[in-house]
Amino acid sequence: MGRSIGGVKGATFGEVFAVKEFRVLFGSFALLVGGDVIKMLALSVLVYARTGSPGLSAAAYMAGWLPYIVGGLFLLSLADRVRPRALMVAGELVRAVTCLLLAFAGLPVWAMLALVLVTGLLSPVFLAARMAMLPEVLPGDAFVLGRSMLNMASASAQVVGLAAGGAFLAVTGPSGGLAATAALSLVAAVVLRTGLPNRPARGATGAGAVRETLRVNRRLVADRRVRGLLLAQWLPCVFLAGAEAMVVPYLGGQGAAGVVLAAAAGGMAAGQFVVGRFAAPPLRERLSLPLAVLLGVPWLGFALWPGIVWASVLAAVAAAGLSYQLGLQRRFVEAVPEEVRGQAFGLQSSGLMTGQAAGAALVGALGEVIAPGYAIAAAGGAGIVVALALAKALRPSPVPSTEGRS
């Protein structure tokens, strides 16, 4: 039974996992995240082995994220115009074929990067279809806990994916790592195809996909409530990503940086669990503002140049603040018309990816001018200022509603 506090019924993790469709979405999402981490790590190593260029190797690692910008701007309407199960299965099959071509087709480096960029254009569409299905299978507060579980799965799968990717690369080389990602994608495709019902598309077909995407994006951004919630989910994370991007130059070695970044992933998972499990829905929404501020505060400590232990503690506490987003999820679902829900979730994810890339670039540029510790502290300070500036959007409406938009 869910807990009822202040007249608002809160779900439990047990109730969430009792839903078969959520279990399918959760398991396939963990496979997706872990597989993508292995894929980009293996591609980066493969490009470096071919070229000996650190710059091209880094470009290969980031290539999987760059298409989110273009796909998010021009293709997201497909998430509402195609049946969601078909989209998700197609996404897994595209990933599998891409990895096999990268591993065994003997492509030149420019062709490998082009393949990743082109096939990645639909990645935000595939992800949007998955996220938009979540409130359909988990009504009410269960949806918020479902998002919490997916966030925890993402953090855990990234850590496991990096470890597994390193193991595969050590034993089989980068081609083996890419083949392993293809295998994970095929397993996920089977799980999705057999475990999900064939739900109809939410939106009607009509104008071209690009035109419709641009039209709906303008409509969503023009809505003051939706725009505020989007900015509240995007902007604080810009400076978190910027601070994390400076951890490697701050510590002067990727091994030590890996410890700090793993601690951040652990802090993120812990924050999602604690806020999702123990905070009742009204409290969860009231915590959004202070937790968003918390996202920036610990990074200020890097101005004192802490060692690896304290750096790990500060990073973990800061990343725990990401749980502020849980308090925005109900309001976001209610603010968005159901027929464009897929595109709205895609816009949310694409903006988040774009903002994180921009944050890493901005703080990285700052790190060229001042010492890395001070750049991290500056990112934390900027994050605090942004969270306070977004206070109106981060605070819940005076009378929380438990009714979802029909």
Automatic annotation (TrEMBL):
Pfam families: MFS_1
Residue intervals passing through the bilayer: 24-47, 59-79, 110-129, 177-196, 228-250, 256-275, 287-304, 373-391
InterPro entries referenced in this protein's UniProt entry, alphabetically: MFS, MFS_trans_sf
Chief location bin: membrane
Range of residues in the leader sequence: none
Membrane topology per record: Multi-pass membrane protein
Entry annotated with the keyword Iron: no
Location relative to the cell: Cell membrane
Gene3D superfamilies: MFS general substrate transporter like domains
Keyword entries, A-Z: Cell membrane, Membrane, Transmembrane, Transmembrane helix
Matching PANTHER family: INTEGRAL MEMBRANE EFFLUX PROTEIN-RELATED, STAPHYLOFERRIN A TRANSPORTER
The protein's name in its UniProt record: MFS transporter
